[in-house]
Amino acid sequence: MLPVKRLRFLALATPDLERQLAYYRDVIGLAEVGRERGRAFLATEAGQLAIVLEEGSPPGLCRLAFDLSPALDAEETARALRDAGLSAERVSDSAPGCPLALRARDGDGRVIELHAGPHFHDNRQPLPGVAPLKLGHVACHAPDPAATAGFYAERLGFRVSDWIEDRFVFLRCSHEHHTVNFTRGPDARMHHLAFELRDAAHMHRACDILGGQKATVLWGPVRHGPGHNVAMYHRDPDGNAIEMFYDLDRMTDEALGFWDPRPWHRDRPQRPKTWVGLPRDVWGLPPSQAFLEMHRLQLPDAS
Ligand SMILES: [Fe+2]
């Protein structure tokens, strides 16, 4: 098993690199930290690479990059790869500051990259736009979410945090409630990606910035049930769904087995569970018709 510790970045294919770059730089508020033919690299204000844009079609997720436990040396990593039954290639051109990564495929054929060692880009100027704290999680469709969850648990060390019925699974690789999610669908395409904000004031500012851009807020702010994050969704220029959130559940101590207590939890203690039926959200209006149409596969019970 290869112990994944965090999400490093997502690579998105786009048919219009300049338009996507302008959006992620000026509206989302990421710093352009590198540029090469057909690719652009964007980092958070804290200097963490978050989004790699790559010219290509169709638009959408083309790679997920994770950080491995730094406790593994090269020999242990090679052994863990063999034990996990993963055939990986070494790549040296993944992104600036990522001199070497292992590239493999998950059970559904998504390209995953495994990185070792921290790297920070030295961008210390305040950024325009929303300027999220970090890239928080990614949700994808999966034909068999239980099988995909099994792959991420057995091969990459993820733990199951919650299920919505038998169709949407939330997985964690750290104290945070989820880093990857999988929802039942006919293929492996992305459902949404999510950026973490600081607090309610930051969410308010994000909504004002999107409103100023005449971007349609498709859903939220709403406090979800699973994860209890306050979330808001809109679309980027390519149509990818983007969530912004804060207040995600945390399990500071795995041995306790419950999420750090919060006053909005209905279960005390709030443990990982299967959520059945509606309403699931703690507060907030249901998703807009535009959100539901964007995720037709989720009808009639989008999350
Ligand atoms: Fe999400």
Question: How much helix is in the residues?
Answer: 10-25%
Determine and state the CATH class of the largest domain.
Alpha Beta
In percent, how much strand structure appears in the residues?
25-35%
Mean pLDDT: 93
Q: Unreliable segments (pLDDT under 50, ≥5 consecutive)?
A: 297-303
**Number of H/I helices:** 5
- How far is the first residue's CA from the last residue's CA? 30 Å
Q: What characteristic shape results from the CA principal axes?
A: globular
Side-by-side strand order of the widest sheet: 14-15-16-13-9-12-11-10-17
User: At the fourth CATH level, what is the homologous superfamily of the largest domain?
Assistant: 2,3-Dihydroxybiphenyl 1,2-Dioxygenase, domain 1
Structure class: alpha/beta
Bound molecules: fe (ii) ion
Overall number of strands: 17
Name the helix and strand elements from N-terminus to C-terminus, one letter apiece. Answer: EHEEEEHEEEEHEEEEHEEEEH
Tell me the count of domains: 2
| Computed Rg | 18 Å
> For this entry, what is the oligomeric state of its chains?
single chain
CATH architecture of the largest domain: Roll
Biggest pleated-sheet summary = 9 strands, mixed
Pfam family, one: Glyoxalase
Family: Belongs to the extradiol ring-cleavage dioxygenase family.
GO molecular function: dioxygenase activity; ferrous iron binding
InterPro entries: Glyas_Bleomycin-R_OHBP_Dase, Glyas_Fos-R_dOase_dom, GlyoxalaseI/FosfomycinResist, VOC_core, Xdiol_ring_cleave_dOase_1/2
